[in-house]
Design brief:
- It is built from 7 helices and 7 strands, in the order αβββββαβαβαααα.
- By secondary structure, the chain is mainly alpha-helical.
- The chain has 2 domains: 140 residues, Aldolase class I (TIM Barrel), CATH 3.20.20.70; 42 residues.
- The strands form 3 sheets. It has a 3-stranded parallel β-sheet with strand order 1-6-7. It has a two-stranded antiparallel sheet with strand order 2-5.
- Strand 6, helix 3 and strand 7 form a beta-alpha-beta unit.
- The longest helix is centred in the C-terminal third of the chain and has 20 residues.
- Keywords: Oxidoreductase.
- Pathway: Amino-acid biosynthesis; beta-alanine biosynthesis.
């Protein structure tokens, strides 16, 4: 987060994140040469498309929180990374992005992807009765916490479920719905 913080402190109006990630795709263990190669030689290339989407989501979430906490005076965040569907765009907006950019998706699927992406984003908005992007921008940010907090929340949930079960003295005290709920609670956390 330090590069984003420094850029914003220095007067940047916004951040665009993320670009491709420099990577080496592999080494051919027979020839001992990097892959892919041209005449036996290679150079690190950009890791992009769907593969970077989870990484981009994490970085956008972190930068959105930084902007919200330290630079609330209206800095912008443009999200980039593995956008191929309207749902991909919605995820970035839910994390606080002001805009969403697409590059590799259009290179791979053509410009028709943009219209499809817009239609899918509108479908998502209708499904949730959102009339504007502002209705859901950053809506998922409050649900991120620390590992320590997650462990504590899990402990509390287990403690509460145990307290509820203590009232069940025998199998006849269980109802079908109660059994299903208890089973679901053990696998849905």
């Amino acid at each position: 987060m330090q590069p984003s913080r420094i850029a914003l402190k220095s007067g940047s109006e916004g951040i665009a994140a993320i670009n491709t990630i420099m990577s080496v795709m592999g080494i051919d263990l027979k020839t001992l040469r990097p892959e892919p190669c041209v005449e036996g030689y290679s150079t690190p290339g950009g890791y992009s498309a769907r593969a970077v989407h989870p990484i981009a989501l994490a970085k956008v979430m972190q930068i959105a929180r930084l902007i919200k906490e330290e630079f609330p005076e209206g800095r912008s965040l443009s999200a980039i990374g593995g956008v191929e569907t309207g749902n991909d765009a919605a995820e970035f907006i839910l994390l606080g992005a002001d805009t969403v950019q697409v590059c590799t998706g259009v290179m791979m699927h053509g410009y028709g992807l943009v219209k499809k992406l817009c239609t899918e984003l509108q479908d998502f908005m209708r499904m949730h009765d959102f009339s504007s992007i502002e209705d859901f921008r950053g809506a998922s940010l409050p649900y991120f916490t620390t590992h320590t907090d997650l462990v504590q929340r899990q402990k509390e949930a287990i403690k509460q479920r145990k307290a509820i079960r203590m009232g069940l003295q025998s199998d006849k005290d269980w109802t079908g719905d109660g059994f299903v709920k208890e089973t679901e609670s053990m696998v849905s956390n």
